Each structure stands twice: as C-alpha cells, then as structure tokens.
Amino acid sequence: MPGHTGQELYRKAKTRIPGGTQLLSKRPEMFLPENWPAYYSRAKGAQVWDLDGNMYYDMSYNGIAACILGAADPDVEEAVIAAIKAGSMSTLNAPEEVELADLLCELHPWAEMVRYARCGGEAMAVAVRFARARTGRDRVAFCGYHGWHDWYLAANLADDKALDGHLLSGLEPAGVPRALRGSALPFRYNHPEELEAIVAQHGDELAAVVMEPIRNMEPAPGFLAGIRDICDRAGALLVVDEVSVGWRLLTGGAHLVYGLRPDIAVFAKAISNGYPMAAIIGTADTMQAAQNTFVSSTYWTERIGPAAALATIRKHRRENVALHLRRIGLMVRDGWRVAADRAGLPITIGGLVPMSSFAIQHKEAQAASTLFTQLMLEKGFLATKAFNATFAHQDQVIEEYLQAAEEVFGVVAQALDRGTVCDLLGGPVAHAGFARLN
Ligand SMILES: Cc1ncc(COP(=O)(O)O)c(C=O)c1O
Is the full-model pTM beyond 0.90? Predict the structure, then answer.
C-alpha cells in the first residue's frame, strides 16, 4: 500500500495539531483511514506526488475545489511570482485590488462595489455582517454549508442543550455563544415553503437569506425567482455563496446562469486557483453599509491574492474553461454509468456536471466506496465518490481513469455479492463527515 511516510507524519501531526489538519475535507480518515497518502511533496496539473515519491492522478477534489485550472497553473504562477518580486506587502495598497474590482463588476453587471477577504467562510461572515449592518436586523435564513463562523454554527444551538448539533449533523457548536440561538434559521433547497414559514414568523427581523444558487440539484421551476420575491417582500437581502460553484458553469457566478439577481455574491477558492483570495461583491447601497461597521484586516491587503485572481479569471475567460469542465465532467459521468453497468454495480450519479459524484446503492455503501478508493489508489489515482474537473484534466487521463474504475467497480460489485468488502479493506471504513442540509 502506497503512502506510508505520509501516514507516519499524520500520526505525529495528530499529537501536535488538534484534528490533524486545518480542514475537515482533508482528513485522511475521510478518504482511506490509515492508508491515505495524507501529504504531498509536489502537485502539478492533475498530478500529485506523495512523500514517498509516488505519483497519482487527482480524480477527486483537486485542492478541495480551489484548483480549477489544475495545480500550479503556469499563468497564475507567473503572475504570483511577479507579485512576490514586486513586494507582496507594503504600507501602500496593491493597485491590483481596483483592477480586480472592475473586472468582477464587468462580469456581474448588477454589482457595483467589491470588498476582499482571503477565505470562503471568512468572506461569508463579512457578507452576513454587511447584510445585518444594512438592514439593522439580526436573523439570517440559510440553506447549505457556509463555513465555520459563529453566525452559521449558531444554527446548531438548540433550545435543549442535548439537541445541540441536530440541524447540521456533525458540526458541533461548542464555543458559539448560546445568546446566538435562533439567529440562524435553516431551510432546504427547493423547499420555499420552509423559507416562507421562517418569514411568517420572523420576516421583519430577517437581515438576509443566504444560499448557494445551485449545488447538488437543479432548482425546481420558479424556486430561485420565488426566493428573490420572498426577500423583497420581507425586506431581507439575498446573499449568494459562490465559494464552490462559482466559475464552474461560466466565467463568473452560477447565479448569472439562472438569472438570479442577488444583493451580495461571495467568491473564494477557484477565484485564485490555489492562492488565498475571496471577494464580496454587491450593489452600491448594500456595500456602502461596510462604512457603518468595522470590517478590516492586514493580510486582506496583500498583493498575491488579487494578482492570482486576475490571472485565473482572465485565463478562465480566454480559454473558455467552463466549456472544458463540462466536457470532462460529462465524460466522467458517462464513463461511470457504462463502467457500473458492465460491472453490475448499482450506482446513482448526481451533482453539477463539473462537480459530479456517484453513490453506490447498497447498505454497505460506505465500506464499498472506501474499497473503491483503496483499489484506485493502488492503481495510481486519488479517487473518491466525487470528482471536481479542472482545466488540467485531458482526455487521456480520463480514459485511463475510467478503465481503472471499471475494473475496480467489478471487484467492488463482486465483494458486495460475496459479503467480503470489509475483508478486502486494509484499514477502517472512511468517515462519512458532516451532513449538509440542502
Ligand atoms: C459553499 C461554501 N461556502 C463556504 C465554504 C467555506 O470556504 P473556506 O473553506 O474557504 O472557508 C465552502 C467550503 O467548502 C463552501 O463549499
């Protein structure tokens, strides 16, 4: 089994770094407990090398959705190196901030002003602060995942302490002030009646409705227009979270595809292809609320983030990256379907085309998916149930991956039939992680 040096380091990390990593989605236990390579020495395009020098093709998360162009993209690298050589930090401001603001407003004509942060969750917290400052209201209705900050985890504070954590299972709200209970109210995607019920009870206290324009399923006809209408009636702002879906469907936010007009949109991750950067864009009167509240941070002014974002967005537009992601995503989905049919493995396929996933339909599904990851790793692929396409994925890699997947699907199907999945696993079953509410 590859990846031993990484596992040794990870065992040590858990004694020095609580939880082992900084991001739930990078925990080796989420992939292949005790056998995931865990650390990388180098990453380039769709390739990644572990600490033992083994090379894998990344057919999984590709920088947890950050590396939309592929790892270490040469054009972004060049812009970042130029920013470093010109001095990444100074007492004066980086002019790239203004250039990027113009570009974001050109791509999103409804937006007039822009602020920056460096991470997705942090930028969402900024957006919620702006919405609260603009409306003078406290409560927020939301759908989906938006990060780790207090405004969001407050949803998991229940009336009864013993029930804490039940709305977003797996996300513990310990350390979030109990006084925030009732300030974040969840509803499910394509369930406007749940938002209507929140508005009926708290409409005049609602600062914002926070949601991804789309994620795992298509919006039902009229759903998004209905959300806009509910916001207008309640006097609440509509904040769209484009941290993960942004730049997947076109050069810009997915809300543009669906004709949804928000008051604020938030970008991070793929906006800068692996360098920390986040943007909060909005209408002028919403964003001017930034002047009435204190939102300010030193490293939000460094130069690498905006330089990387400008290079990423320009390449995205120039190369029509969204079209490539669609073609690669469709190739993988069709390949999964054919491979699973041939192997006799029952799967369902879901997600946005460029962020597709499959689910094995069996009561032993989690163990079977872990076995899939284990056997694909042995064949040189980082592979899970989900695949984020990048501009660096070319047909040949996809063809090799699908051939390997078909063989592995066959082994998994046979093991499920014989009840031997756990016997074939070299370690425990992967953790399922937290459950999204959408
Ligand atoms: C929709 C959405 N919002 C917010 C976040 C948080 O972003 P970050 O991990 O950069 O803080 C994520 C991360 O997965 C996300 O998918």
Answer: yes
